[in-house]
Amino acid sequence: MIRTMLALLLIAAHAMPQALKVADLDAMRVEHRAFLDALAQVESGGKDDAVGDNGKAIGRMQIWEIYHADAVQHVRAIGGQYSDCKGKAYAERIVMAYLHRYGKQALKDKDYEKLARIHNGGPRGHTKSATVKYWRKVEKALASK
Q: CA 108, 125, 110 angle in degrees (round to 5)?
């Protein structure tokens, strides 16, 4: 009986998804370095102090407050404040968490078109025609890396 219960607990533990950690996001940052650099180039010219969209977007990745909240909700271990998006590492962790939430398979597949369009247009951004032009800019920046 005890063996059966232990076996069931082990099976359940492996079946449950594990929460992402900051170290996981940092590994993603390394894996997707060229993509992150291309996003930053398109968004802000890589400037950490950039402010855009009439003050609604900050940092190299031009992150909106709602995007930040969404990413931190998905990976609570990130912590921090919205203003921290003005730092390179923090902003990239936010982007990776957000893309993991809405484009997990695209991250695995390195489908940078889908990921760029989600970053630009929200969770369903990859389905919006308005994000195609943005992708073309990211694609061009990627090609120059």
A: 20
Domain at 123, CATH number: 1.10.530.10
Is residue 17 very low, low, confident or very high in pLDDT (cuts 50, 70, 90)? low
Is residue 88 within 8 Å of 48, Cβ to Cβ?
A: yes
Q: Note the pTM of the prediction, 2 decimals.
A: 0.88
Q: Which of 129, 138, 85, 93 is nearest to 111 (CA)?
A: 138
Walk across the sheet containing 51-52 and list its strands.
51-52, 57-58, 63-64
CA–CA–CA angle 46, 49, 52 (5° rounding): 85
104 burial level (CB within 10 Å; 0-12, 13-18, 19+): exposed
User: Distance between CA 119 and CA 28 in Å, rounded?
Assistant: 15
Question: 48-99, pLDDT tens digit by residue?
Answer: 999 999 999 999 999 999 999 999 999 999 999 999 999 999 999 999 999 9
**Domains in the chain, number:** 1
Tokens found for residue 60? 């190299």
Whether 28 is covered by a domain: the verdict is yes
